[in-house]
Amino acid sequence: MVYMTVFSIVRNDTDAEDCAQDAVVNAYRHLGNFGGSEFSTWLATIAVNEGRATLAPVEKSQGRFVG
Known about the structure:
With 67 residues, this protein is mainly α. The chain has helices at residues 2-10, 13-29, 39-61. Helix 1 (2-10) runs parallel beside helix 3 and helix 2 (13-29) packs across helix 3.
Protein backbone atom coordinates (compact mmCIF):
# COMPACT_ATOMS: atom_id res chain seq x y z
CA MET A 1 0.00 0.00 0.00
CA VAL A 2 2.77 2.44 0.89
CA TYR A 3 4.77 1.80 -2.29
CA MET A 4 1.75 2.20 -4.56
CA THR A 5 0.75 5.41 -2.80
CA VAL A 6 4.12 7.07 -3.28
CA PHE A 7 4.56 5.63 -6.78
CA SER A 8 1.29 7.31 -7.82
CA ILE A 9 2.89 10.61 -6.82
CA VAL A 10 6.53 10.31 -7.90
CA ARG A 11 6.05 8.02 -10.95
CA ASN A 12 9.54 6.58 -10.61
CA ASP A 13 10.46 3.16 -9.21
CA THR A 14 13.64 4.25 -7.47
CA ASP A 15 12.08 7.34 -5.88
CA ALA A 16 9.00 5.34 -4.88
CA GLU A 17 11.16 2.73 -3.14
CA ASP A 18 13.07 5.43 -1.26
CA CYS A 19 9.89 7.27 -0.30
CA ALA A 20 8.18 4.09 0.84
CA GLN A 21 11.12 3.21 3.04
CA ASP A 22 11.26 6.74 4.47
CA ALA A 23 7.52 6.66 5.16
CA VAL A 24 7.70 3.38 7.05
CA VAL A 25 10.73 4.54 9.06
CA ASN A 26 8.97 7.83 9.90
CA ALA A 27 5.82 5.99 10.91
CA TYR A 28 7.84 3.70 13.16
CA ARG A 29 9.67 6.64 14.75
CA HIS A 30 6.40 8.46 15.41
CA LEU A 31 4.31 5.46 16.41
CA GLY A 32 3.87 7.03 19.83
CA ASN A 33 2.05 9.94 18.17
CA PHE A 34 -0.49 7.65 16.53
CA GLY A 35 -3.86 8.82 17.79
CA GLY A 36 -5.70 5.53 17.58
CA SER A 37 -7.69 6.29 14.44
CA GLU A 38 -7.37 4.16 11.32
CA PHE A 39 -3.71 3.05 11.06
CA SER A 40 -3.79 2.64 7.28
CA THR A 41 -5.04 6.22 6.84
CA TRP A 42 -2.30 7.53 9.12
CA LEU A 43 0.38 5.57 7.24
CA ALA A 44 -1.01 6.67 3.85
CA THR A 45 -0.85 10.30 4.95
CA ILE A 46 2.80 9.90 5.89
CA ALA A 47 3.46 8.25 2.51
CA VAL A 48 1.75 11.08 0.61
CA ASN A 49 3.78 13.65 2.52
CA GLU A 50 7.01 11.78 1.69
CA GLY A 51 6.07 11.68 -1.99
CA ARG A 52 5.27 15.37 -2.07
CA ALA A 53 8.50 16.22 -0.25
CA THR A 54 10.44 14.26 -2.85
CA LEU A 55 8.72 16.05 -5.72
CA ALA A 56 8.88 19.55 -4.25
CA PRO A 57 12.48 20.37 -5.27
CA VAL A 58 11.90 19.02 -8.79
CA GLU A 59 8.63 20.89 -9.24
CA LYS A 60 10.12 24.10 -7.84
CA SER A 61 13.08 23.95 -10.20
CA GLN A 62 10.65 23.51 -13.11
CA GLY A 63 8.51 26.43 -11.96
CA ARG A 64 5.54 24.24 -10.99
CA PHE A 65 3.63 24.18 -7.74
CA VAL A 66 3.21 20.99 -5.72
CA GLY A 67 0.26 21.10 -3.42
